[in-house]
Here is the input.
Amino acid sequence: MEPERPVHKKRIAVLASGRGSNFQAVVDAIAAGEIPAICVGLITDNPRAYAIQRAEDAGIPAVVVDYARFPSKAAYEEALLVAMRSCRADLFVLAGYMRILGAGIVHEFSGRMMNIHPALLPAFTGLHAQRQAVECGVKVSGCTVHLVDEGMDTGPIVVQRCVPVLPDDDESALADRILVEEHKALPLAVKLFCEERLEVDGRRVWVR
Ligand code: GRF
Here is the structure.
């Protein structure tokens, strides 16, 4: 029998812009002992994000870097970078973070930033992915957790889960069905990272 690997808890921080249900799914999985991690912070660009309330309820420090208060994207990202560095996180999880990160941030945290996207990438990148899927007439869609690179929703794929697209689906019905899978896919991807089981080989990510 293989000796058990010692588990050192990783420090993770989450970036979210709104409702925060994916953030909650990760927090719950940590609390349930499924992920060897501590969530050291929530960072949001939106002072009205419900994710802030969720952080408070879970006793996780929340930092607001209010996009609207900065004169430029560069100034905003400078402040965001300060907030991110101060987390001293091993992994940053983009869970409904609705902005594209600049190259400086992407490079600094390369290989340790993950994003969840509500489509089976590489299809339907960007906004309204569920609407794009319905309008395109695909029969299957789903969600993707990927590492973040400089592109929009283009980084190496870690986990995908799929759902059927039903004949009567509108954007909202499909989004609800995909969200259920997001709440499984994101904690799984975070868990694999925290257990050091991901091996990145170019665009391909192997699970050891
Ligand atoms: C999710 O569908 C996520 O994939 C997308 O934005 C939504 C965020 O939902 N990027 P929540 O804030 O996690 O509830």
